[in-house]
From TrEMBL:
GO terms for biological process: DNA-templated DNA replication. Coiled coil: none annotated. It comes from Mesoplasma corruscae. SUPFAM superfamilies: P-loop containing nucleoside triphosphate hydrolases (SSF52540). This is DNA polymerase III subunit delta. InterPro entries: DNA_Rep/Repair_Clamp_Loader, P-loop_NTPase. It comes from the Bacteria.
Amino acid sequence: MKKIEIKNNLAKLIKENRMFHSIILSGKNYAEVITVSNDLARMFFCEKTNIDNDKCNACKRFLSNNIIDYLKIGDGNLPITKVQVQEIISRFSLTSVEKFNKKVYVIDCAENLKNDAANSLLKFLEEPPINTFSILLTKNKTDILPTIRSRCNLINVENEKIIDCKNNILVDMLYKNKEDILLSNIDIKKIEKSELIKLSEDAYEIIKEKFPLNTNLFEVWLEFILDLKFSISKNISIDNWLINVTEVI
């Protein structure tokens, strides 16, 4: 299913209070999976449940990672432990402290759940507290334990050749504070190099329109694209680029 279809369908379910309690988002283009996940999580808190960031107070808080009833675990590299899952269970078993009356957690690269972590999560998926929603992300849903899959609604994010400019995660990053921009390296490093180059080139065209006076940002961006294409270490290129972005944004 295409991103726009997924977001429209899920926004409708949220508005009608019929949203699935647990879903798995999967897709070979992991950048698009992350984009859909970020938009979906934000929609739960958006004052009008808009599929795009409408810059309401709730959306601004979400993009600043400033909503208590939202939590994301998993970095794409290390195994996800039972301790991390127990943090979710402890935190989300409590009554919501925010006015939204919704609690949302995301498990990035859910295939990295260790067996004891998956077993701990299982019962929480079976009997979630009221208004608690889980979003599990993966490139391949078959890599997630069958017992977990069977308790979630599966949604496949199609690999779209044309990047939706409104949902370019590199552009979205620029609206965060400097600390959160640096923390974006976790999600960005999960994107395949070829996909990241395409995203960066598309983002460059967007920022020229959105930030027409920031020529320093243009230079930093072009240097990053060149570095990505010719550097041996993608991760070092990303780290250096994000530091440079925070200095010119």
